[in-house]
Amino acid sequence: MSPDAPIAIIDSGIGGLSVVRALREKLPHERILYFGDTARTPYGWKSAETVTGFVRQIVQYLRGYDPKHILIACNTASALALATIRKQFSDVAISGVVEPGARAAIEAAGAKAFPLIAIMATEATIWSKAYERAIHRRRHHARLLLRPAPLLVPLVEEGRSEKDPMVRLALRQYLQPLIARGADVLVLGCTHYTQYKSLIAQQTAGKITLIDSAAACAEDVARRLLAANLLSGNPSGGLLRCFVTDGSPRFRTLAAKFLGHEPEPPTLVTPDQLHLIGEDLRQLRISAA
Ligand code: DGL
């Protein structure tokens, strides 16, 4: 595997672009392929079977580009699908967002004997108990407050800013109980939420340490590539290519909010095309057997 090979990043839509931004700031020479499943977003209240099927198709497609690492930059997909996908594609390095977020939360809790760690995430991420497992594996006595925040993804997808009264109201509703219960740490367990990070910091007024799962996972990927000797040193390598499953022009407008600039027009890969690629590979395997 060459250090010049791309890093492939997968998300249900646009939220994973917060990870792309963090990763590009850390590793500016990397070639990044970003796949947003914009036709089938949101994943946040779908079943594990459905989300795993979507992610499997996308991984099959992206493997055609020989990535050196595949990052599932969506908490929901990491929580529901990562373990199965890793087993199915054991020849390629695949990581997710939940473990780095949990690790950062434990570090932020410091030496406190029974820290109270709050997780704000999609319903599916909360139901999966992936954060509970990841945190308790590291710190058995950590107390958890789990807060599904289903309104936030649609608000981000609608392009509503931190100044919007609906955003302010929704965040107040979600954050008040966490502040009242005295949470020490709050994990922003959905890559969309970085859009409202400053407002969340303002509303929690320094009382809670915030963990941005997007930033934590960008650090994690950088660490993994360094350990595998796969960091790109190519100064002209820093490219971003996007793929989407729906051709609406919204993607570029919203992507600009995450990236700070409009990306090049994305390549359209429809869900039907993803399905056909999966079928072709299945047929190949059957005829080779
Ligand atoms: N950004 C995704 C996450 O980190 C959730 C968005 C969705 O519901 O599809 O969980």
The name of the CATH topology of the largest domain is Rossmann fold
Tell me the major beta sheet. 6 strands, parallel
Structural class: alpha/beta
* Bound compounds: D-glutamic acid
N-C termini distance: 27 Å
Features of the shown structure:
289 residues, Rossmann fold, 4-stranded parallel sheet, 12 helices, 48% helix, globular, binds D-glutamic acid
Task: Describe the protein in words.
The protein contains 12 helices and 10 strands. The chain is an alpha/beta fold and about 290 residues long. The protein has 2 domains: about 5-95 and about 215-289, Rossmann fold; about 100-215, Rossmann fold (3-Layer(aba) Sandwich), CATH 3.40.50. The strands form 2 sheets. It has a 6-stranded parallel β-sheet with strand order 4-3-1-2-9-10. Strands 6-5-7-8 form a 4-stranded parallel β-sheet. Helix 11 links the parallel strand 9 (about 240-245) and strand 10 (about 265-270). Helix 4 (about 100-110) crosses helix 10 (about 215-225). The model has no long low-confidence stretch (mean pLDDT about 95). The structure holds D-glutamic acid. D-glutamic acid binds near residues 122 and 190.
Give the secondary structure arrangement, pairings included.
Layout: E1 7-11, H1 17-26, E2 32-36, H2 48-62, E3 69-72, H3 75-88, E4 94-95, H4 98-109, E5 116-121, H5 123-128, H6 130-138, E6 143-148, H7 152-157, H8 165-180, E7 185-188, H9 197-204, E8 209-212, H10 213-227, E9 240-244, H11 250-259, E10 267-268, H12 271-288
Parallel strand pairs: 1-2, 1-3, 2-9, 3-4, 5-6, 5-7, 7-8, 9-10
Helix pairs in contact: 1-10, 2-3, 2-12, 4-6, 4-10, 8-9
D-glutamic acid binds next to helix 3.
